[in-house]
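Dear H.,

Thanks for agreeing to be a second pair of eyes. The structure we're designing against is below in token form, covering all 219 positions.
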């Protein structure tokens, strides 16, 4: 397989990646390691393999938890190189007794409603020191480290400033959507629109502020 060819979520259906979820442009995994020392030892093992493969992951280390993200930065998405490293990481995690939790992976995006994104996109790119990238036929702003939320611009009609202009988009694995929406509704929210499911659902809090829960399906 061409190591530079970008893979989609559909390409990964049936691939042996039970610990991983592809969210936006990266593979994500989360492992419980028991304690901080276990997480450090797993990081050391991953680092050795990553150096051998010449492909470096992003790691977030915590007390008894390790989150791993994989992306081929040279092409801006997931490739066979990420798949190969993901499978090796899973092998190392199993050998270390780490427990995978793919259901808790997620990616937060910010969406700004605007009638003219060209008037505001440069400001946000400069303020946040984000890169402008093309994705799905549109320009988005992204933090290349993957630590901060991406920003995309939703075309809308001209409107007064008091109307809500920012909303959150939360990308989650498809299997957790139902539970996440149910929890939000139980906490006082409202399901506003599910006509675009399973691509996204629109929810609102008790004051009408909206957010979307999104998946890769239905796109």
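And this is the sequence the design step returned. I haven't edited it by hand at all.
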């Amino acid at each position: 397989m061409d190591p530079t060819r970008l893979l989609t979520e559909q390409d990964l259906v049936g691939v042996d990646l039970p610990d991983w979820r592809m969210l936006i442009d990266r593979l994500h995994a989360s492992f419980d390691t028991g304690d901080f020392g276990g997480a450090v030892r797993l990081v050391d093992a991953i680092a050795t393999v990553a150096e051998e493969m010449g492909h470096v992951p992003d790691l977030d280390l915590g007390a008894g938890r390790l989150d791993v993200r994989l992306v081929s930065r040279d092409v801006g998405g997931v490739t066979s190189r990420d798949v190969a490293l993901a499978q090796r990481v899973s092998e190392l995690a199993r050998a270390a007794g780490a427990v995978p939790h793919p259901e808790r992976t997620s990616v937060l995006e910010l969406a700004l409603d605007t009638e003219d994104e060209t008037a505001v996109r440069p400001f946000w790119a400069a303020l946040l020191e984000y890169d402008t990238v093309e994705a799905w036929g549109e320009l988005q702003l992204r933090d290349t480290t993957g630590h901060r939320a991406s920003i995309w611009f939703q075309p809308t009609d001209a409107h007064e400033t008091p109307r809500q202009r920012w909303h959150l988009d939360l990308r989650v694995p498809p299997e957790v959507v139902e539970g996440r929406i149910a929890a939000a509704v139980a906490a006082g929210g409202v399901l506003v629109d599910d006509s675009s499911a399973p691509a996204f659902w629109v929810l609102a809090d008790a004051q009408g502020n909206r957010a979307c829960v999104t998946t890769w399906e239905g796109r």
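Two observations from my side: The chain has four helices and 13 strands. The first helix runs from residue 36 to 53.

Warmly,
E.
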